[in-house]
Fold each of these.
Amino acid sequence: MLTEQQQQIITNIYDYVCIKLANDTTGHDIAHIERVVKLAKHIQSFEPQTNLFIVIISAYLHDVIDDKVIENYQSARNDLLAFMAQQPITQDEQLAIFSIIDNMSFSKNLTKQRALSREGQIVQDADRLDAMGAIGIGRAFYYGGNKHDSMYDPNIKPRILKSKADYRQSNTIINHFYEKLLLLKDKINTPEGKRLAEQRHHFLIEFVKRFEIEWEGE
């Protein structure tokens, strides 16, 4: 159970995130954050040995210093550090939170799996689950449209991503399914996350199959 003080800290962080992501048009808005928090809390309920407070805060903050979302990484990080210093959070808690949000993203784990606490694995699973299924499809097209990517070009083949630079390089939206979304199922950490991922992964496969058939006018 969370204490009254912890609940207030979470409220403060929620308000902070709402302000920071208020103008997001990439699919990393507060609605995404709230879904990730809900999924993380659900998965954590199957992992009672973990710290719910750390899970919730990390889930709320996981995108506020992500360089695919914000314009100036160092400025955003400094702002978050200053904000967190104002909260009654211990140094160990802050280290645990930053260790998660600094290391959980897909792009940072392309070449080597970064070590995450169990709390970090829970938040990572929740974030990856929101990139799958029906919501994941919607977010993929929303993000791709924001970046002016074309929907599909059968002459442009999916890549094997080897670096963050590869990941950030523009490509078709359907290729994003092959390069990332369809790979997420096998990268989930927790048993409950794996269970949820199976359903969402199947939906992705069926969508891509149908999309490619309809693209040909069939």
Note: The mean pLDDT is 96.
Amino acid sequence: MKKKTFVLVVIALVSVGFSAMGQRVDRTNFKAGIHGGVPFGDISDHSNFELGLDVGYHIALSELIDTGLTTGFMNAFINNDSVDAGPVTVEGDFPNIQYVPVAAVFRLYPTYDFKLGADVGYAVGINDGNTGGGYLRPIIGVNVSGNTELNISYVKVSDDYDFSMAALGILFLF
């Protein structure tokens, strides 16, 4: 039941993003970049580094607010060949943990060079046994030039385990 409710909320947010896209077309931004993260929570027992790709399309609703859609790819590198599951240690070749997020984007610009926001949606699990889950990514960004943004974020995927990380990224405006 919780998963159905979450999916409905994500669909509603994406719909709001699409309807907002039709409001103003005088300022649109395609953004692409990379990020690296340090996992914590349950995933930190098995991974100490994550690397990802970010792609998004933003539309200005006003001078202070953007909305849009984002996707990308996240890969948490597994750093060992055994997993300690309580009293049992499982040996084997474990795949990296991979997600493709699909999310609505909201950004607030207190100044031209500084932004606060969040990506809210669903992270599709693409490696074997990865069911995916709700995706939340609060973000703080700073413009370092007219077409380059440096950002820090917290990523949370509500999956069967705790996939959380702190990330540092760079985005380029096209």
Note: The chain has one domain: 2-79+94-173.
